[in-house]
Amino acid sequence: MKRTRTGVKICGITEEAGLDACIEYGADWIGFVFFERSPRYVSASRAAVLGKRVTNNIKKVGLFVNPDDTTLKQVLDQVELDILQVYTTPDRALQIQNQFGRPVWVSIPVAGKGDLPSQCPVQRILIEPKPPVDALHPGGNAQQLNWNLLQGWKPTYPWMLAGGLNPENVGQAVAITGVPAVDVSSGVESAPGIKNPRAIARFIHNARAPVIV
Ligand SMILES: O=C(O)c1ccccc1NCC(=O)[C@H](O)[C@H](O)COP(=O)(O)O
């Protein structure tokens, strides 16, 4: 069966070179991290500058951890974001989607099959590995999910796979899970917060190239 083109999000954009690689090699989404403890943090004013450089109809995703309304409003007043990606409860994610009038993606931490959601409260669900209890942040930890947990799981809503993906393993991850879209941060960096344009090119190519498993 012919697969549709895999959607690709490159998260944690902080500088022009990484952003330009996303545009050149055909990313669908880029992510700005508005979480101050992250090495990929960007201020709203910096994201606004980078955002103006975006072309090719690439969508800009703003990433927030347990955001309150004031924080969301302050950022949205300065940056044109197409999508809000949130690390919070499904109920709060839905409230944000209703209140701020933009599609919301909610991250669902998964440790076992029982964590896989049967419904999607918002526009899309991000399936990510449950972080260790001592993790400094809930995502962007280069931690890989056991993809075999997702075999046979066929959600009828939009979803995305994240966590520990890189140019070498993304083709296999797509082939095993059948996921329609993938998200990467650490796996295409030369240092935390600094994207590697060659790795971005390889990641996007390999996410869309057929792999037999
Ligand atoms: O990237 C961060 O520093 C970060 C901080 C707080 C919450 C989420 C964060 N990142 C999320 C992502 O970049 C991706 O959605 C995903 O977790 C992939 O990360 P990685 O394993 O580094 O590819």
What is the secondary structure topology, with strand pairs?
Elements: E1 7-10, H1 16-25, E2 29-33, H2 44-52, E3 59-65, H3 69-78, E4 83-87, H4 90-100, E5 104-110, E6 124-129, E7 159-162, H5 170-177, E8 181-184, E9 189-191, E10 194-195, H6 197-208
Parallel strand pairs: 1-2, 1-8, 2-3, 3-4, 4-5, 5-6, 6-7, 7-8
Antiparallel strand pairs: 9-10
EC number: 5.3.1.24
InterPro entries: Aldolase_TIM, PRAI_dom, RibuloseP-bd_barrel, TrpF_fam
GO molecular function: phosphoribosylanthranilate isomerase activity
Report on the architecture of this protein:
By secondary structure, the chain is of the alpha/beta class. The chain has one domain: Aldolase class I (TIM Barrel, Alpha-Beta Barrel), CATH 3.20.20. It contains 6 helices and 10 strands; from the N terminus they run βαβαβαβαβββαβββα. It has an 8-stranded parallel β-barrel with strand order 1-2-3-4-5-6-7-8. α5 links the parallel β7 (159-162) and β8. α1 (16-25) packs parallel to α6. The longest helix is centred in the C-terminal third of the chain and has 12 residues, at 197-208. The two termini are 14 Å apart. Bound molecules: the ligand O=C(O)c1ccccc1NCC(=O)[C@H](O)[C@H](O)COP(=O)(O)O.
